[in-house]
Amino acid sequence: KGLQVLEAPEQRRPRAPWFERHVQPCVAELLGSALFIFIGCASVIESAEGAGRLAPALAHGLALALNIAVLGAI
Fold it and tell me: pTM of the entire structure?
């Protein structure tokens, strides 16, 4: 005789709170953009004459990497 397969009742995941769904991503985007723009602008202002395009490019790249590392999980 065949075996009967028992089906587990459907379990619905609870919805995340309103703060985690709406506010937290917006705040993370705001902080990430502000940090990226602030570091980029500061690196251009404080750039030495001989640095050329390298210093602002490195500053933007490091700011982007920092944003991804810190805020990427959100």
Answer: 0.59
